[in-house]
Amino acid sequence: MRNTLSSILILFSLLLSLAAGAQTAVPAPESTRFPNIRASLNDGFFVLAEQQARGVLRAEPSDEEAREATLLLSHALWGQKRFTEMLKQLRNCAGEPGCVYWRARANFELRRYAVALKELEKGGEALAQSRYAPAALRLKGHLQQQGGTLDEAESSFREFDEAFPQHPDHMENRFDLANVLTLQKRVPEAMSIYTSISEEPDRESAERARLKLAHVLYTQGAADSFDPARDLLGGLATNVQTRLAYRIDAYVDLAALEEKAQNEPASVAAMRAAIALSPDARQRVPLKLSLARMLLRDGDTAGALKLLEECRAEAPNETIATELQLEKAGALLKAKRFEGADAAYQIYLDVADDPDGLAKAYFGKGLALWSMDPGRYAEAAVLLDRAVNELRSPILRAEALFKAGDAYYMAEKFEEAEKRYREYGVQFPDSPHVPNALYQQGLSLARLGKRPEALAVFQSVEQNFPTNPFAEQAALRSADVLWANRKWEEVLAKYTLIGQTYTNSPATQALSEFQRGIALYRLRQYPDAQKAFESVIGTYPESEYVPQATYLRGYSLVWQGKTDEGVAICQTFVEKYPDSEWTPEVVFWLAELYFNQGRYAAAEPLFLRIAADFKAHHLAPRAIYWAGRCAAEQSMYPEAITRYSEIAKNYPTSDILPQTRFWQGDALTLLGEFSRAILSFDEIIKNFPESYLVNAAWGRKGDCQFTLAIDDPARYAEAMNSFQAILDRPSAATALKLQAEYKIGRCLEKTNAPDKAFIRYMNVVYTFVNEGVERSPDAVVWFTKSAFDAAKLKERDKDWKAAVQVYERVAGANVPAKDEALKRIDKIKKDNWLLFQ
Fold first, then answer.
1. Which stretch of DSSP H or E encloses residue 246?
2. For residues 279 and 274, what is the distance between their CA atoms, to the nearest angstrom?
3. Sorting pLDDT into bands at 50, 70 and 90, what band is 25?
4. Which of 66, 83, 147, 675 could cross-link 106 (Cys pair, CB 3.0–4.6 Å)?
5. Do 204 and 56 contact (CB within 8 A), yes or no?
């Protein structure tokens, strides 16, 4: 237990003596006409005294009697804590000393200390010479103490001590003087006064002084003061002749002392002794509550909750029982029993009506919901918002507002989170947590995609709070935003600056150097990237970035043309870090490198290793796909088809599935299994309508149908439908449409519709010649095929002039087949010279 019990000391004897002092603070009025009212006031019957005084005022008293009754009524109202009514009652009462005193007293009770002091100053010499002088002087001392002018308060109490040695409040004034000296850290002087009082014949005052002396010893003195304080308190607590209230106080102080001395068992034992002595639940319940808090600090949740249940059972009224329910909920929250805390707070919310308690319950329940696993963040945010609106404590309100932002952030309601963090900075600009709030605001903006705004907030943290830990975090997040925008030059500059600025953080230094390397790599500055990665490996060998830096160094070497060296580094990485999260990436990279080099036999086992050792990795289905491609490139089509089927079976939702089905269909066509191939192409068309492969799948499906039509001519119509689907799709490339048009012509020719076939062929020719088609190799091929097949149809019909016209289109297009077209034109003209005279 680290905290002391100072805040929970319940000094019943002090309260009783203060109350007595308050009643005798003003002497009886000089008039002898009001003995009953004075008696009622002396006995503490303030309501009765009020009725009696009002009776005098209603009976048409003389001016002097009315003034006296007004002062007595003010005293009665004071006793009932009706301070505002006191001021109303005294508003027509001018500078008479009694009026001045009671107005000052009312303002003191309302905590208007400056106003009360001014009232006393108005009293002047008349007040100083009146029967109110002693009470006014002590009131002045208390006002000065509350105002923080302790030296002036000391002066007032000393003046009273000297001027009124026989006054009933003389002893109380000595206690006040000692207290002021304690507040001034003049502990020896305070202890001297308490020691002097402890030797007085008045037993009650002596016991009280010993209590105060012990309290000063252990709270203001060093550890060597604990034993004298312990002796004083032990003597008071165990002496059955000591006033019971002081015995209880002594045990409570002893518990606080032992807690400060970190003697938890003794502290708990002392508090239990205080509880055992307390005869009344009104005394016992607060002490049990204090003990419960002690046990919570010690981690004894079960013991604390047991005490809280006892408190609820013996609570003197329902109001206190309800307050204890709030304490129980807080205990459960502190013990991290969040479900129980949630339920306990809800019980309180269902029965309580105290605004302050309700606000705390909203706050506590919100924290409990936030802290659950999994957290109920959306519900927590609503409750924390409500707590912000209703909590009176600025400290708690600030905490609730910040936590509301956290709850909205965790609930992925980033717009609401951003508002709360921004509002925190506005409402609590002097809070030490503002940098954190701004940082969280930046994160929220980034998650909303508002990157410029996020960058501005992060930069404000860096600029306005350069020594705060969140400045470093904000700098890193600024770099992240630039990274997301792929502004590699700015990323490079940012990480260079981070490395130069935050030199006391090896982790940040390692990260900034590593990220610099990646930025250089992205900028294709491979020699500098290589150096950065080597710096990470050499300077920060224990850094988490070393494995990545190792293989990226290898990549950088390959891009510099040092392929063998780079590959060797990556192979060493795979051997050294077989279970690294980056190993699948590196293995895949090596396999891709071999594939692109045409080393399919070397690439295939690497792809298969990923599929075998890292089945859950996102690259696993792609690795199987490329293993299939490797097998196909080696003409091992059955093996390729097996790989492709494995993907469909084990990774049915993979985004590589359209490519898998396409190349599966390709392999099946190479095996002559055209019907099965059609099924593969159909799956792409039906299940992946947005895939870029759909157009090609229609074409390959049409090819399969065209081939099957050799044995089943009816399938030419199916093939034409497939090719027509390409022509109807706006997304199909021009070269692919030329191919589809040509193949429809072939189908028409096969179905003995040469005239229609000729039209299709010439559609290709005219499109190519007249519509500015890009002269891609594919476009040229289908233009040439269409032109030559169209010309052949005309040659077959002996329409030599038409055939020549078509060939001339080829010659005029200046394509590779130009010479062949010219040869054919020459032959036709020679064979049919008469026709061309």
1. helix 244-260
2. 10
3. very low
4. 83
5. no
In this structure, what are the phi and psi dihedrals at residue 213, rounded to the nearest 5 degrees?
Answer: -60, -45
Rounded mean pLDDT of the chain?
Answer: 89
Q: With beta carbons less than 8 A apart as the criterion, state whether 708 and 675 touch.
A: yes
Q: How many angstroms separate the CA atoms of 761 and 598, rounded?
A: 38
Cis geometry, peptide bond prior to residue 394 (ω within 30 degrees of 0): no
Predicted TM-score of the model (pTM): 0.59
Q: How far apart are CA 453 and CA 348, in angstroms?
A: 42
Taking the CA of residue 149 as centre, how many other CA atoms within 13 Å lie in the half-sphere pointing to its CB? Answer: 14
Question: What separation, in Å, do the N-terminal and C-terminal C-alpha atoms of the chain show?
Answer: 121
In this structure, are residues 160 and 139 in contact, taking their beta carbons and an 8 Å threshold? Answer: no
pLDDT at 485: 86
Per-residue tokens: 207: 């016991």
Joined together, the tokens standing for residue 274 give 């205080």
CA–CA–CA angle 395, 399, 403 (5° rounding): 170
Residues 434 and 308: their CA atoms lie apart, in Å, by 37
- Architecture of the domain defined by 413-485: Alpha Horseshoe (1.25)
| The Cα angle at residue 179 between residues 176 and 183, in degrees rounded to 5 | 140
- Burial label for 295, CB within 10 Å (0-12, 13-18, 19+), is buried
Q: Is the pLDDT of residue 221 over 80?
A: no
Lowest mean pLDDT among 283-287, 435-439, 649-653: 283-287
CATH 1.25.40.10 domain range(s) in the chain: 317-403, 413-485, 490-577, 588-654
- Determine the distance from the C-alpha atom of residue 490 to the mean position of all C-alpha atoms in its chain, rounded to a whole number: 28
DSSP per residue over 58-105, as a string?
HT---HHHHHHHHHHHHHHHHHTT-HHHHHHHTTT--S-HHHHHHHHH
Dihedral, CA atoms, 780, 785, 787, 788, nearest 10 degrees? 130
User: Which of 427, 418, 422, 375 minimizes the C-alpha distance to 396?
Assistant: 427
Q: What is the pLDDT of residue 550?
A: 94
Q: Name the CATH architecture for the domain at 317-403.
A: Alpha Horseshoe (1.25)
Q: What is the pLDDT of residue 33?
A: 59
Question: In this structure, what token pair is assigned to residue 714?
Answer: 């009816």
For CA atoms 101, 106, 107, 111, give the dihedral sign. Answer: positive
What would be the CATH architecture of the domain defined by 588-654? Alpha Horseshoe (1.25)
Range 490-577: architecture per CATH: Alpha Horseshoe (1.25)
What percentage of the chain has pLDDT greater than the value 90? Answer: 73
CA dist 364 → 47, 83, 293 (Å)? 40, 35, 16
Give the separation between CA 707 and CA 716, rounded to whole angstroms.
9
Name residues whose C-beta falls within 8 Å of residue 524's C-beta, 6 or more positions apart in sequence: 559
DSSP H helical ranges for 299-393: 301-313, 318-334, 338-351, 355-371, 377-390
Given a cut of 60, whether residue 2 has pLDDT beyond it is no
The band of 10, judged by pLDDT with boundaries at 50, 70 and 90, is very low
